[in-house]
Write a structure and sequence with these properties.
This protein has helices at residues 24-27, 33-43, 86-90, 95-101, 119-122, 146-152, 165-178, 231-234, 246-263, and strands at residues 4-6, 9-23, 48-49, 54-66, 69-73, 111-113, 126-129, 132-135, 141-145, 182-185, 189-191, 196-200, 209-215, 218-224, 266-269, 278-283, 286-292. The protein has 9 helices and 17 strands. The chain is an alpha+beta fold. The chain starts with a strand and ends in a 6-residue tail after the last strand. Strands 1, 2, 3, 4, 5, 6, 9 and 10 form an 8-stranded mixed sheet that branches. Strands 11-12-13-14-15-16-17 form a 7-stranded mixed sheet. Strands 7-8 form a two-stranded antiparallel sheet.
Amino acid sequence: MKKIILGNVEVSRVVEWHGAFGATDVLFPSVPGELWRRHESWLAPDFLNAETGEWQATVQTWMLRSAGRTVLVDTGLGHDKPPEGEVSDKRDGEFLDRLAAAGVRPEDVDLVVNTHLHNDHVGWNTRLVDGEWVPTFPNARYLISRADFDFWHPANGHAPRFADTGDKFNDSVLPVHQAGQAVLWEGDSHRIDEDLVLELAPGHTPGSAVLRLESGTDRALFVGDVIHTPLQVIEPDHDICLSEDQAEAARSRRRVLEQAVATNSLVVPAHLGGAGAAEVVRSNGTFSIKRWAPLLDA
């Protein structure tokens, strides 16, 4: 398994699933078909199925070794969870085996960062043991935005756009909180260690966050679902239909891209296959991808 060293932090990724997530005209309704066709030469095949017009997505976990601790950024779809259609039906449940191949057992994980609480980012927070959902990583603290925790908690009576997330809250988030392993961070940022900071980037969900890595001269932004497709780098005003507040999501995306350019940070979205990360620059009044920076083969 290939790794990259960013300053004092070792970074790799564990892929749970890769494939066609859904039709681009449904998921990104504001993006005209002509725009996808114009850019399909470099979007396909990693980010676009040019034949079917489907968005190609990867569900993956970023694994960081920082300050002597093992940190997981998002935990994917999980296993034994109620089915969610085609994507869930295709997952194979071998995530923990792949984590073990990277040298990490569940008990070795010190921190879990949920960039937000959508189903495909919290699935392996828990696993089913004797009919009960228990934390998958028994020695870990789970960093969860208070804004997302309060919004998705069914007891608070909010009306999210996607009601099934409440079910996943009960099996993938609430058991972690009940076990005393959840750290509900508040405000605009939360420092993890000298190299890692969580920063609020709302819109996709109220508590969506970016993990900022600054170590030595190296910089990276693990942006979660602030960016779903590389097309949003060059066309940042277009958002996915799955966001709670699409206008705010677009503002967060522009702000994060500006930060990436200003600090020469790698941009590392949650769902990009292929190289997985990109160096972004300013170009003709907007943003462009200068180069791909592979962190690990998918």
